[in-house]
């Protein structure tokens, strides 16, 4: 901690708080004028106090407030309502009866789903008006359609709509995810509805994507098999779209998924390889400067080729700052460099703060720098191999301590054999990455020898086999772990307080540590109390009938048949079970009539069997029953009609009209989401 520049840390903290305040507490008033006013006031204060070695407290407070304001303003500027030429504003001002004509330039190619190719595109024009802003573009898959690439420009006449919210509780919110990428709307189209296509002005990102696709096309012609080729694409080119879904799940279960995402680990290995390669430049005049420029250029070239993900940019920026400090002949602290890179990247793009990769990357490096040296100092083996293994163990443990709470929050699982996986994999990762770079270079030059391709294929195949073996040890993979935001924050409070106590014991730090443990216990009790209630839920799933009754930690699922495979680990049941900490799960055929609380519920399926006289509170319509709903309402007098996702749309529309005529509440899960009765 001796050489930490706490000003950089404080600036980073206040910038982060400013971004978070704008995210969680949105306002219609721009904070940019206040930032500019504060900056002007800061300059005035500096002129007044420039001869003072110690600045006044007002100068410090104003500086921190300015960084807070910069964070808030920079996030606000990413929002459509603060962009005068955003396409959504232009579309809202034109005639709603007209379908707008959109000029879209593809900026990012996303992983396609079963039915659509997906892209993020910049909307350059609406009709004749120049616009800004990104949109999610979904193009229906077609047997003759080729995938578009970055910098392609499409002319499309389609309506822009909001990205839908999830229709089931605790389901992944794709709408919120896209907003964190700066995308607020989407459009869907078919290949035949694309009016024009041309290659737009080439950008550096487009050139990098074209070069990457060219290399991948050449790799496909080599003797490297599909699964192994997908690994080298991920390691060297940052392209993970071709990785088999099950293979990716195996890497996640084994605790090795981080090696598939180009990050600081890969950039660090490349950094030391490049420093070694450019050693001869040091003998030239200005050789050290030339070497630094060459290494930095190669690092950012690799980052560009790998797609400029936040974790790669972070690592390239951080190592570049290390080199810059070396050239200035000034000692630096790694934590200073980490926070300086963090500050610079958030100033460039505040939305990166909400990227999972960005969060995990910085947390892992921060905890490695914070606790790995002290951990490593506990043992000094004389054997070189043991020293290397001990270094890997301490780095892995330190990184895992830093990312465990956030990983549990996002992914709800913990790989118990992560340590064994990393001890085996990490020593060979540098070799895999180095030879992978050589293979990609030789493929580009059309000089890849067969023996090298086959040897590399064998090594990667062995790696995949080892990963599959680890992943199959089900007893060491802890899944379906409920971990809320409160638990995540309280866990980090406990971890940091324990680390501070471990570094230097004092009564005050012990008190803080015990208090943080009490906070964590309180959060656990609160979360358990929050999910301990009872509820009836009608899930939304197209062409499926799913109802469930939750009683505390017990969940009984009602379904149309019990012969097929259990639905325990399928959508949307798995996410619901995890979020509500369900311990006991069972499945039954759904009853025609049953009671929940003081309500009597009638389920009408395709058999269309309806009791003539009964006291019914709620009617659930499923499997598109052919009934006279008006007659049913008159005879049973229910309080509400519910239609799930297993009904024809024409039937749902007809039922909705009937209920509107009868002035009876109608609930369609396909429109409003899952129906929940507490």
TrEMBL record:
The keyword Transmembrane helix applies. InterPro entries: ComEC_N (IPR004477), Competence_DNA_uptake (IPR052159), DUF4131 (IPR025405). Keywords: Cell membrane, Membrane, Transmembrane, Transmembrane helix. It comes from the Bacteria. The chain crosses the membrane at residues 7-25, 31-48, 57-77, 251-278, 290-306, 335-354, 360-377, 389-411, 417-443, 483-502, 509-526. It is a multi-pass membrane protein. It holds the Pfam family Competence. Residues 235-504 form the ComEC/Rec2-related protein domain. The keyword Magnesium does not apply. Residues 32-193 form the DUF4131 domain. GO terms for cellular component: plasma membrane. PANTHER family: DNA INTERNALIZATION/COMPETENCE PROTEIN COMEC/REC2 (PTHR30619), RECOMBINATION PROTEIN 2 (PTHR30619:SF1). This is Competence protein.
């Amino acid at each position: 901690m001796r050489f930490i520049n706490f000003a950089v840390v404080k600036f980073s903290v206040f910038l982060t708080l400013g971004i978070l305040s704008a995210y969680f507490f949105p306002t219609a008033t721009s904070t940019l004028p206040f930032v500019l006013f504060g900056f002007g006031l800061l300059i005035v204060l500096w002129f007044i106090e420039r001869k003072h070695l110690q600045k006044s407290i007002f100068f410090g407070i104003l500086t921190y407030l300015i960084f807070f304001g910069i964070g808030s303003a920079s996030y606000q500027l990413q929002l459509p309502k603060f962009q005068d030429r955003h396409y959504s504003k232009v579309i809202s001002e034109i005639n709603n009866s007209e379908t707008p004509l959109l000029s879209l330039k593809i900026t990012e190619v996303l992983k396609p789903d079963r039915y659509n190719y997906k892209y993020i595109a910049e909307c350059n024009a609406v009709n004749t008006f120049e616009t800004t802003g990104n949109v999610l573009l979904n193009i229906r898959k077609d047997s003759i359609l080729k995938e578009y690439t970055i910098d392609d420009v499409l002319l499309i006449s389609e309506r822009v709509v909001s990205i839908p919210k999830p229709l089931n509780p605790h389901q992944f919110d794709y709408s919120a995810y896209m907003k964190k990428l700066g995308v607020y709307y989407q459009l869907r189209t078919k290949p035949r509805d694309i009016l024009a296509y041309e290659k737009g002005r080439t950008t550096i990102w487009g050139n990098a994507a074209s070069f990457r696709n060219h290399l991948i096309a050449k790799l496909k012609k080599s003797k490297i098999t599909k699964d192994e080729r997908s690994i080298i694409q991920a390691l060297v080119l940052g392209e993970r779209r071709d990785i088999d879904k099950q293979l990716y799940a195996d890497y996640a279960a084994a605790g090795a998924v981080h090696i598939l995402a180009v990050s600081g680990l890969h950039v660090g290995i490349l950094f030391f390889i490049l420093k070694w390669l450019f050693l001869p430049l040091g003998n030239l005049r200005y050789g050290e400067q030339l070497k630094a420029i060459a290494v930095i250029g190669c690092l950012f070239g690799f980052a560009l080729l790998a797609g400029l993900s936040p974790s790669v940019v972070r690592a390239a920026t951080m190592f570049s700052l290390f080199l810059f400090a070396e050239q200035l002949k000034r000692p630096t602290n790694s934590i200073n460099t980490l926070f300086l890179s963090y500050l610079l990247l958030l100033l460039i793009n505040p939305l990166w703060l909400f990227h999972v990769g960005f969060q995990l990357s910085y947390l892992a490096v921060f905890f490695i720098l914070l606790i790995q040296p002290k951990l490593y100092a506990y043992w000094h083996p004389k054997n070189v191999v043991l020293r290397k293994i001990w270094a890997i163990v301490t780095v892995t443990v330190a990184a895992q301590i830093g990312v465990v709470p956030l990983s549990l929050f996002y992914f709800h699982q913990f790989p118990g054999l992560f340590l064994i996986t990393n001890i085996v994999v990490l020593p060979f990762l540098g070799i895999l990455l180095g030879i992978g770079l050589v293979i990609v270079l030789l493929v580009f030059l059309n000089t890849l020898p067969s023996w090298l391709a086959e040897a590399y294929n064998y090594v990667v195949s062995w790696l995949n086999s080892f990963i599959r073996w680890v992943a199959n040890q089900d007893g060491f993979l802890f899944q379906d772990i409920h971990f809320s935001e409160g638990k995540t924050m309280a866990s980090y409070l406990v971890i940091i307080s324990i680390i501070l106590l471990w570094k230097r014991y004092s009564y005050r730090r012990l008190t803080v540590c015990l208090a943080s443990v009490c906070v964590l216990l309180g959060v656990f009790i609160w979360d358990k109390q929050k999910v301990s209630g009872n509820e009836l839920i009608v899930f939304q799933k197209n062409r499926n009938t799913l109802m469930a009754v939750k009683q505390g930690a017990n969940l009984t699922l009602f379904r149309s048949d019990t012969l097929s495979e259990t639905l325990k680990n399928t959508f949307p049941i798995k996410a619901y079970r995890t979020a509500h900490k369900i311990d006991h799960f069972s499945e039954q055929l759904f009853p025609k009539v049953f009671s929940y609380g003081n309500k009597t519920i009638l389920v009408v399926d395709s058999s269309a069997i309806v009791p003539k006289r009964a006291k019914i509170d709620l009617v659930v319509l499923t499997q598109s029953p052919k009934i006279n709903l008006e007659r049913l309402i008159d005879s049973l007098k229910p309080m509400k009609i519910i239609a799930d996702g297993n009904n024809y749309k024409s039937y749902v529309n007809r039922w909705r009209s009937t209920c509107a005529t009868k002035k009876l509440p109608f609930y369609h899960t396909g429109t409003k989401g899952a129906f929940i009765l507490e």
